[in-house]
Write a structure and sequence with these properties.
The protein has two domains: 84 residues; 57 residues. The chain is flat and about 100 Å long. The longest helix is centred in the middle third of the chain and has 68 residues. Helix 2 packs antiparallel against helix 3. It starts with 6 loop residues before the first helix and ends with a helix. It has four helices and no strands. The chain is mainly alpha-helical.
């Protein structure tokens, strides 16, 4: 690598205004080429970093879910033991409670989806369309 020369040293030298323009263009090309190479290298590193973060997030959610399940099983068994009832009935009650909470969340999400989004923006765009239609009727094209 010691015998390699820089790209600007291998190009023929020109003199005068044209030579200056050629040298400027060459310098700009070298500059953008080096920045593109740097961006490509950093993009690969950023992609790896993103995938590691995404994998960690998925694994964290997975372990959180398993922890919740084990905690719920422990609570079910503890309540069944303290109440002297079968753990099946306590588990059934816990499942029912979870289904009711999930249904409430679905109803809240459903009402949120039914509300129209971007009301003001749509109204402004509607006004703009009307204005454009009136503009065409008032000023016919030549």
């Amino acid at each position: 690598m010691a015998d390699e020369t820089a790209p600007s040293q291998t190009r023929p030298r020109h003199t005068g205004f044209i030579g200056s323009l050629v040298a400027l263009a060459s310098a700009l090309a070298d500059f953008f080429e080096s920045r593109a190479a740097l961006l490509a290298t950093e993009s690969k590193a950023a992609l790896v970093q993103f995938f590691v973060a995404a994998l960690c997030l998925v694994l964290a959610i997975l372990f959180f879910a398993f922890g919740y399940i084990f905690l719920l099983a422990t609570v079910v068994v503890a309540i069944a033991h303290m109440a002297n009832v079968s753990w099946l009935w306590v588990s059934l009650a816990a499942a029912g409670l979870h289904f009711v909470v999930a249904l409430i969340f679905l109803l809240v999400a459903g009402t949120g989806i039914k509300r129209p989004l971007f009301r003001t923006t749509r109204a402004e765009l509607r006004k703009d369309r009307e204005w454009l239609k009136n503009l065409e009727t008032n000023h016919p094209p030549n």
